[in-house]
Specification:
Protein name: DAGKc domain-containing protein
CATH class of one domain: Mainly Beta
Strand content: 15-25%
Keywords: Membrane, Transmembrane, Transmembrane helix
Largest sheet: 10 strands, mixed
Shape: globular
CATH topology of one domain: Tumour Suppressor Smad4
């Protein structure tokens, strides 16, 4: 507790140092500095919106605004001989916020998702995609290492297209007592659903490109071969939730709106950036794509340009609330919706969750409807067409995941900045001791006693 108190005091000291620096060296101009910095940030965000929402001359003027706005802020500070103040003061504020988070971190950290000891599998069946992650299966010798540990390995390679779900079912029919995947999150989700259906443990090998699922499990994303340690007696088991959308599973999230519309385009594969910039103006203006409406618990979200439903909520670590998930066993869905119809609303996103353009919810079910019979949905990075309305739900602790006992990626969730609690921690005043009050005299049974 003493350490947390001094960290809280240090956070306030750093904040005061930033304010003192600005007032001491800038005087009344410090208020103008804050205004200039805020104006520059607003112009930068507004320029980004105009760049994405328009084409032609307006787009390039917006691009120039995005470049010139921060330069203008720096030049303004430099002309007033306050450039170093404009750099050092924000750095002090950033350090103060980081210190405040440390102060608010509980002394006893959240142990995370519980694990249980289970014997290692005897007939593990692993599906590996040789092309995933730029060829990580061959680069790290995953097939040979898995087979050396007694696993049977099936490769997702031709001739023709190979169905990962069919391979998994064949493995179950042959008597597999564990299913695993070395590949992308989309393939992980398909096989995870089959493992859950047959109540078999599931193994994740971080051989994909981004490995979001592996990251939230705390697995080593730099060395996929380390994930195979779970096949030995060094492995433990966790029970986590699975997302369900239209009868299929997802381990990360389901995305509706702009992202799914863009990825569905045939031109996206060959020119991702160009296709995105070409399609976004019509999507943001509502002239292309389905108009969405979502019922999330007791809330209704009308006309979002982007809607993300995640298997357990993401931490509130950035402007969109998309960083990582501290737990995968809360039995809830996370919802992040962005509804931005103007540059003004895009600027409001700087306020985080307080802006009208950004909605964050934690619910048990989400129903997404549209003004079209079918809508594209990005499920763990793979886009499919689904009949509207689309229902998303959660299956609590439906999947048994086998992971190595020691996982380098396990990190505690970042606490939210709670200034009243921080101020109480930083206080030098001793907490007043609770006064002991004498117990009230008991009345004798049988009525009131009278003095003789």
């Amino acid at each position: 507790m003493t350490r947390r108190r001094w960290l809280a005091r240090a956070a306030f000291a750093l904040m005061l140092a930033a304010a003192a620096l600005m007032i001491g060296f800038a005087g009344l101009a410090s208020l103008a500095m804050v205004g200039v910095g805020a104006a520059g940030a607003c112009l930068l965000v507004a320029g980004a919106y105009w760049f994405l929402a328009h084409r032609g001359l307006v787009r390039w003027l917006a691009f120039c605004l995005m470049i010139l706005a921060p330069i203008a802020v720096l030049v303004t500070f430099a002309l007033n001989h306050l450039l170093w103040v404009g750099i050092v003061a924000p750095v002090l504020v950033v350090v103060a916020i980081a210190t405040a988070r440390l102060a608010l971190t509980p002394v006893v950290a959240d142990p995370g998702m519980p694990v249980r000891e289970v014997p290692p599998p005897r007939r593990a069946f692993l599906i590996m995609n040789p092309k995933s992650g730029g060829g990580k299966v061959a680069e790290f010798g995953l097939k040979e290492k898995a087979e050396a540990l007694g696993a049977q390995v099936a490769l997702l390679e031709g001739p023709g297209q190979v169905d990962a779900a069919e391979l998994a079912e064949e493995g179950v029919a042959a008597g597999a007592d564990l299913l695993g995947v070395a590949g992308g999150d989309g393939t992980q989700a398909l096989v995870a659903g089959i493992a859950a259906e047959h109540d078999l443990p599931f193994l994740v090998v971080s051989a994909g490109t981004r490995n979001h699922f592996a990251m939230d499990l705390g697995l080593d994303r730099d060395n996929p071969a380390a994930c195979l340690d779970a096949l030995t007696s060094d492995g433990v088991e966790q029970q986590i939730d699975l997302g369900i959308i239209g009868g299929r599973t997802f381990v990360n999230n389901a995305s509706f709106g702009a992202y799914a519309e863009v990825v569905e385009s045939p031109a996206y594969r060959d020119d991702k950036a160009g296709t995105t910039l070409q399609m976004l103006p019509e999507i943001l203006s509502g002239h292309r794509g389905a108009r969405l409406a979502a019922c999330a618990g007791e809330s209704t979200i009308t006309g979002p340009q982007a809607l993300l439903v995640s298997n357990n909520p993401y931490q509130d670590g950035d402007i969109a609330g998309l960083s990582r998930r501290a737990r995968l066993d809360t039995g809830t869905l996370g919802v992040v919706a962005v509804t931005v119809d103007s540059a003004r609303q895009s600027v409001e996103l700087l306020r985080g969750g307080k802006g009208r353009g950004l909605t964050r919810l934690t619910v048990g079910e989400v129903v997404v409807d549209a003004d079209t019979a079918e809508i594209p949905v990005g499920i763990d990075g793979e886009t499919v067409l689904m009949t509207s309305p689309v229902r998303c739900a959660i299956r609590p602790k439906a999947l048994r995941v086998r992971v190595p006992r020691d996982r380098p990626g396990i990190r505690p969730a970042k606490p939210a900045i709670d200034w009243p609690t921080l101020r109480q921690l930083a206080s030098f005043r001793a907490r007043p001791a609770r006064r002991r009050t004498a117990p009230a005299p008991r009345r004798p049974r049988g009525g009131i006693s009278r003095p003789s």
